[in-house]
Design brief:
The structure holds 2 protein chains of 2 kinds. Chain A is α/β, with parallel strands linked by helices. Chain A has a single domain, classed as LigB-like (Protocatechuate 4,5-dioxygenase, Chain B, 3-Layer(aba) Sandwich), CATH 3.40.830. In chain A, 36% of the residues lie in helices and 21% in strands. Chain A is built from 9 helices and 12 strands. In chain A, strand 11 and strand 12 form a beta hairpin. In chain A, helix 3 crosses helix 5 and helix 5 crosses helix 9. Chain B has a single domain, classed as Dioxygenase LigAB, LigA subunit (Protocatechuate 4,5-dioxygenase, Chain A, Orthogonal Bundle). Chain B is globular. Chain B starts with a helix and ends in a 12-residue tail after the last helix. The chains are: A alpha/beta, B mainly alpha. At the A-B interface, strand 9 and helix 8 of A face helix 1, helix 6 and helix 7 of B.
Chain lengths: 275, 95
């Protein structure tokens, strides 16, 4: 049977590949992603399931699901031209993706799907750093965290739990890593940008509180406080926390191996490994 | 629904390199065939992103106009005009 062997929380800032190319392997971003890369390799994954919020690149305002899963043998990335990210074709496992979708629909979640699709920086930037040879198949599981109304945090956590059960009901032996991609507090292109920048961190106190809740395994508290109002207060992409919350639902109640903050960016790098 | 047209063209500045080049060199001509109101068209050509935000255009999409420097925008000008928009705690325009 498939088993979930680890959880990862990852940022996906699109300029980070350029910064690392510019600043070299000893810069903070390279080191933080490098540590996660080593952890990921140690888990020996056969599959990554990544909860992600598309930035209106895979989907758009004319066709925007709350939840959706990519079901195809591969997908292309990136479709939004982040600087210094090569074009990739990422393998996937459509049978597992379809199995997961069927199981979570049976569990009461209305999950759409996409085929023959491409993805943006929010999926490919973490993979660019963590698995650049793109040998590990990836299934993206999309959660709308940007365009209100957002799904509730509780709903996302319960969805994650259903996804986890679905994965563990897959009959073949697979080592599966769950990822949650995104930031805790970030405003991109909106009025709460920092002066002179294209982004900003409107609620660093919230970002720190999220990090503390993750570190202290206070997930119920995190869910309770992650109201739509708080997520939007944290920035126009603050809803990306829902991806982490879904990941936590999928992996179950485990203590994090570490949570490494980058408060100046409103996010963190985190790993959950338990065996 | 014309705000959709504004949001859509912002994304096309990213995805359609021919449209991007047209917006960079001859924006009035590039916008001419699109389903826009007069106010939307004027605001776009003036790079008046504050007004467009107050009309309901998605800021994340609008940021592509600055990223690809169309309609007289660049990162700094975009930042100044957007940050001048008064908003409430969750980013909705006020006043």
């Amino acid at each position: 049977m498939a088993q979930i062997v680890a959880g990862f929380g990852v940022p996906h800032t699109p300029i980070f590949p350029h910064f690392v190319k510019r600043d070299g392997p000893d810069c903070e971003i390279a080191k933080l992603f490098g540590a996660q890369k080593a952890q990921l390799a140690a888990t020996r994954p056969d599959l990554i399931v990544m909860f992600d919020t598309d930035h209106l690149n895979t989907f758009f305002l004319d066709n925007l699901p709350i939840f959706a899963v990519g079901i195809d043998k591969s997908f292309k990335a990136p479709n939004d031209e982040p600087r210094d990210v090569p074009n990739y074709i990422v393998p996937s496992i459509p049978d597992v993706a379809a199995h997961v979708r069927a199981a979570v629909v049976a569990a009461g979640f209305d999950v759409g799907m996409t085929q023959s699709y491409s993805v943006d920086h929010s999926v490919i930037v973490p993979l660019h750093f963590l698995t650049p040879d793109m040998k590990v198949p990836v299934i993206p599981f999309f959660i709308n965290g940007h365009v209100p109304p957002l799904p509730t945090a509780q709903r996302c956590h319960t969805l994650g739990r259903a996804v986890g059960r679905a994965i563990e009901s897959w009959p073949a032996s697979l080592r599966v890593v769950i990822m949650g991609s995104g930031s805790f507090s970030l405003e991109v292109g909106g009025p709460r940008m920092a002066p002179g920048r294209s982004d900003g961190v409107p609620d660093p106190d919230w970002a720190m509180r999220v990090i503390n809740y993750l570190d202290e395994q206070k997930i119920e508290q995190l869910i309770a406080e992650s109201t739509q109002y708080q997520l939007l207060k944290a920035g126009n992409v603050g809803g990306e926390l829902l991806n982490w919350i879904a990941m936590l639902g999928a992996i179950g109640n485990h203590k994090p191996s570490y949570v490494a903050p980058q408060i100046q960016n409103g996010h963190a790098y985190a790993v959950w490994r338990w065996n | 629904m014309s705000i959709f047209a504004v949001n859509h063209l912002c994304r096309e500045v990213l995805r359609d390199h021919i449209f991007r080049a047209a917006m960079q060199s001859a924006p009035a001509k590039a916008l001419a065939p699109l389903d826009l109101t007069d106010d939307e068209r004027s605001a776009l050509l003036a790079g008046d992103v504050g007004t467009l935000y107050r009309m309901g255009v998605n800021a994340f999409l609008m940021n592509y106009l600055a990223r690809f420097e169309v309609c007289g925008l660049n990162g700094q000008i975009y930042n100044e005009r957007m940050c001048a928009v008064r908003v409430d705690e969750i980013g909705n325009p006020v006043g």
